[in-house]
Amino acid sequence: MPSTEPSPLSIALAYHSAWTGHDLDRAMGYIAEEIATEAPSGAINGAASYRAFLGGFMQQLTGVETIAAFGDDTTAVLVYYPHTPATTHAPTAEHFIVAGGKINRTVLIFDRPSFAPSSTDTTTEVPA
User: Check: CATH 3.30.310.10 for 8-110?
Assistant: First the structure.
């Protein structure tokens, strides 16, 4: 009998749509309480820590261009360009492991320097 549970790809895409649409509560509805994430900044464990991480980045997000989405019975991969005041061209990839209709594990890959303020941005200078 075919599964009536949404595919990992449809869950990842719904999650992606929620957070890139600035709906943190809806995005977190796709996240397992025990989520484990590997990110360039380090490990993020548990839904509360993940919510803080995602909510902080959402404040910077001004748009997104999704360029690829793939999935199978247990995983999904999304590739996209998040737009922030610092960049609109920072290739980003996320690998999701989904079980029981929730995202349980993610690996987030992006170039951290792409999100840093430009060297001409005077708002980040520290007064002497």
Answer: no
Rounded CA gap, 5 and 89, in Å? Answer: 34
**Model confidence at 118, in pLDDT bands (50, 70, 90)?**
low
Residues 34 and 48 sit within 8 Å (Cβ to Cβ): no
Residue 39: its pLDDT value, please?
A: 93
Strands 31-39 and 102-110: parallel
More confident residue, 73 or 86: 73
Is the CB of residue 22 less than 8 Å from the CB of residue 78? no
Residue 20: CB partners within 8 Å, gap ≥ 6? 61, 63, 64, 82
Structure tokens at 21: 């649409």
